[in-house]
Design brief:
With 403 residues, this protein is mainly beta. It folds into two domains: 90 residues, Immunoglobulin-like (Sandwich); 252 residues, no CATH class. The protein is 14% helix and 42% strand. The chain has five helices and 29 strands. The strands form six sheets. Strands 15, 16, 17, 18, 19, 23, 24, 25 and 28 form a nine-stranded antiparallel beta sheet that branches. A five-stranded antiparallel beta sheet has the order 4-3-7-1-29, with no helix packed on it. A hairpin with a 5-residue loop joins strand 8 and strand 9. The protein is globular. The relative contact order is 0.14.
Amino acid sequence: MKKVFFSLLASAALMSSCRSQPTLTVNVVNPLDVDRADETVEVSWSVIQERIGGVEPQELAVLNPQGEQAPLQVLYKGQPEPQAVIFQVDVAAKGSAAYVLKRGKTARQPSASKTAARLVPERMDDFAWENNRIAYRMYGAALMKVDGPSNGIDVWCKRTDSLVMDRWYAADLSRKASYHQDHGEGLDGYKVGRTLGCGAMAPYVNRQLVLGNNFVVSKVLDVGAIRASFELAYAPLNVAGTTVVEVRRISLDANAQLNRISEMFVNAGDMEVAAGIALKNSKAPATVATADPAYKPLIAPENGYVTYAEQADALKSDTTNNGVIYTAIIFPDGMSDAKLEGNHLLAVGRYAANQPFTYYSGAGWSKATTQEGLLRFSTEKSWQDYIASEALKLRTPLTLTFR
């Protein structure tokens, strides 16, 4: 009789434990006939609270299909309360994979950060951001007094998984080591000047880019294991007689080369816009006529992307070959046009008033390596293949179902 009693107690305790430890299973389906790795998925915080009520952000854990704990990040999107959770998934071609969100028995150990983003006041208000593959920056108002206006995107090439920007800035500002020279981890070998650099956007009116000035306000939204995101606002700009304020919201995920950029032109009506990649010759932005003939852009508006390549810059005193920087722009919803014009390779689209225009841009480097020591992009063709694959995935996202 005692055995039966204790058995009933154990069953009741187990049932109580199951009730007190609910889970949310996220089934991720890949509709494409290609494998997908390290791809970020997002689950809203409200869905998690419906299934795992009262869970605190630090308690939440995610288990991969093998039952192992995987890195996750709680997103706040600039708000005081959690908005969503993201984690990265691997799903085979035409396959599916189940990931389980649950309340951990103890507080979850924080995942190691693979991203960073911050204002850099010590370097004239740069805004810099990076992940475990690559780094970028844009220029603040303080620098405009020294170098003039430049609101394009700069590229820092990396061949390390480590986060480098704080160390590179400190070494450069103390004159111990210039980040324009490769000391084993990579370098800034990209020239922006008065261009859109690596894929920034501008109004495109009467076949003319209306370039803004340097940003005046910055706000970090999230930084963590998987994503860095932030917002930059610019001084008012005259666009065809209308005063417009440009706001860029940018995010970069771990294991990605490309930034997700959402552009808002506050107070603008419907208009054409263009994202651009600066053409290059002899360490400086060039024109169509004077661009380096060794590198030919790939213009594929029918597939929603354009790519370019250029020799990385070197300091005058440095005879090292710093490799090739590959760049690209993807419009997942399609381009109305793509062309070489002025000193840019342009991707043209239509901006709808009061609606963000979301697209992707970024870069790779011929000297970047994988953890296994292999070159990530050994040829321009390998970069073009990567961009074609990314464009296809963006057009055909993973689908999520919950149970």
